[in-house]
Amino acid sequence: MRHRVAGRRLGRTSEHRLAMRRNMVASLFEHERISTTVEKAKEVKPFAEKLITLAKKGTLAARRRAIAILGNRDIVSSEEGDMVKKGTVISKLFSEIAPRYLDRAGGYTRIIRLSQRRLGDNGQLVLLQLVSQDEVSKKKSKRKTSKAAKRIEVEDEVESSTETSQEVVEVVDVEAESGVEEASKESSEQ
User: Fold this and answer.
1) Separation CA 185–CA 99 (nearest Å)
2) For residue 145, is pLDDT > 60?
3) Residue 150 — very low, low, confident or very high, per pLDDT cuts 50/70/90?
4) Would you say 28 and 110 are in contact if contact means Cβ atoms under 8 Å apart?
């Protein structure tokens, strides 16, 4: 019986499962989307989301924990036949991916089922991808804003209202001065 046994075996040893999960999450962070099977995607999704939540802290301790959990694989691309290092997966996670989701409390990835099947064993393929910035902002605008965000909005409104009130006072002062000048001209003409 498998009572209280979490996770899927996926037909692999425990070391192979751990290495596969690390490699898939590193590829997900590097490319921001990967194509895999349903079972693997469901196994990798919580692991990726926990790492993004860890990266949102942004501390040195969090960075070291992420390196210990994931490893620090280089991001390499081919430019004009030469392999060029563009950074590491951890640096991209902490500098690009985590800041996107600072206002989001989870749900950083999604699984989209594809109509394609894998050629060898006819396995169901899915697309595991990070939720894009556009969708994050749409959700943010629909969702009720937090108290801190409301306070910032109120402060901005107060600042803009004080600026406009200062402009109104200046306009009134200018009009009053021009009215005084016109009244003095009229009195001198009479």
Assistant:
1) 64
2) no
3) low
4) no
Residues 80 and 86: their CA atoms lie apart, in Å, by 14
CA proximity to 28, closest of 86, 92, 80 = 92
CA distance linking residue 160 with residue 163, whole number of Å: 5
Cα 139 to its chain centre, rounded Å, is 12
First to last CA, the chain: 110
Tell which residue, 3, 70, 1, has the closest CA to residue 30. 70
- pLDDT at 143 (0 to 100): 58
Task: Please tell me whether residue 129 adopts helix, strand or coil conformation.
Answer: strand
Residue 48's pLDDT band (boundaries 50, 70, 90)?
A: very high
- Model's pTM, two decimal places? 0.70
By C-alpha distance, which of 96, 98, 121, 94 is closest to 108? 98
The residue to which tokens 């019986």 are assigned: 1
Distance (Å, whole) CA 118 – CA 170:
72
Distance CA 36, CA 16 (A): 16
